[in-house]
Amino acid sequence: MVAEDALSLLTDLIAKAKTVGADAADALLVDQASLSVAYRLGRPEKVERSESGDVGLRVFIGKRQALVSSSDRSRPALDELVERAVAMARTVPEDPFCGLAEPSQLARDLPALDICDPVEPLPGVLVDWAQRAEDSARAVPGVTNSEGAEAGWGRSFVALAGSNGLAHSYSVSSVQVSAAVLAGDATGGMERDYDYSSAVYAGDLRTPEDIGHGAGHRAVRRLGARKVKTARVPVIFDPRVSRGFLGHLSGAINGGAIARGTSFLKDSLGQRILPADVTVIDDPHRQRGLRSKPCDGEGVANRRRAVVEDGVLTTWLLDLRSARQLGLETTGHASRGVGSPPSPSVTNLWLEPGAITPDEMVSDIADGFYVTELFGMGVNGVTGDYSRGAAGFWISGGEIVYPVSEVTVAGNLKDMFLHLTPANDLVFRYGMDAPTLRIDGMTVAGA
């Protein structure tokens, strides 16, 4: 749907809602298209394309709100959607913190972020990428089986409108290639690993051969894994897993958790939570960023922020509702779907790199653990207690010496944050990115 038609449809919905009793309303339209292929053991396994379109209407009557969504855009269906939303809003409990943005808070001129590749790859192109990735992975000596390789593309068109004057639309795209293979055999043991790449533009992807080789090399490298004895040692987190700490951080400074008092960082605003020279950036306007967007889900202007600057926590992540609960201003972090109300969420989030190389980080460790994979959900967001299953490699005498599996790494996120050291190898790869991280004094529980 073209932007003008989408915004016209949404403004008509809002006008109808006000006609039948709503005091205010906003609406969201999302059209999506995707194409995915899978290739395994030398032959294509699937080629799938899907298209969908949904509309969500949120209405307000006083301090009551209701949200209804539909995939049917016929006039009778949309008329029914309006009637249902207004009827629901009359019956739900009051929420003193709900409401639309003030006109002065809205983004007026959306920045050009280059977040939509106009070229849709043909199915044959995706099949070729997947084939090349799997062929490369299976060619690695020691690889004995394959879970296959996949390639996918997607594009979304988003339109937002509100009775407060909001009227914006934009498009985003993404493309990805992945491969997963097994190494070893039933007698000597088998290991699985993967690799993948994702980007806004196909031209920014790693080559399928590089992805496949990475998956095969990682799987073979894990063969012969051992258990280790329980000890307190330095632990190094590979970038594939170190970025997870940003997820824990963003959850802990989410305005909803702060308003509920359910975060281990609830009393930490303006205090040091990371080492003095460590900064964490959230940037919704990063060019070709995987999570970039020109405004937030409530139409509020957003911007680049140092959420942690020189180790000090500078802000919560707030949408309008959580900001009102806390007596603060929104930070433009609202995210929403057609069937759900706004809630705070990060965009392109990263931890700035340090000065030391990963090799230098390992070189002075007498005994330690290099983590390449984490399992389980053993993180308590209220207390910060951290305990997760892990696999990786043992470090001895400043060198990586053998693979390790079936261990647990444990600590408390407050202490872990304060004692982490970043390496200099930050690469923007996932939309939430961190370099290799070292945290001393963690407990590795093994045999």
Question: How would you describe what is shown here?
Answer:
There is one protein chain. This protein is an alpha+beta fold and 447 residues long. It folds into two domains: 217 residues, PmbA/TldD superfamily (PmbA/TldD fold), CATH 3.30.2290; 223 residues, no CATH class. The chain has ten helices and 19 strands. The strands form four sheets. A six-stranded antiparallel β-sheet has the order 3-2-1-4-5-6. A five-stranded mixed barrel has the order 7-14-15-16-19. Strands 10-9-8-13-18 form a five-stranded mixed β-sheet, with helices on one face. Strand 15 and strand 16 form a beta hairpin. Helix 1 packs across helix 2. The N and C termini lie far apart (59 Å). The mean pLDDT is 96.
Summarize the structure.
With 447 residues, the protein is α+β, with helices and mostly antiparallel strands. The chain is built from 10 helices and 19 strands.
The overall pLDDT average reads 96
Number of strands: 19
Order of helices and strands: HEEEHHEEEHEHHHEEEHEEEHEEEHEEE
Morphology: globular
How many domain modules? 2
Count of alpha/pi helices: 10
Largest sheet: 6 strands, antiparallel
Radius of gyration: 24 Å
Strand content is 35-45%
The N- and C-terminal alpha carbons lie at a distance of: 59 Å
Strands of the widest sheet, in order across it, are 3-2-1-4-5-6
Structural class: alpha+beta
Oligomer: single chain
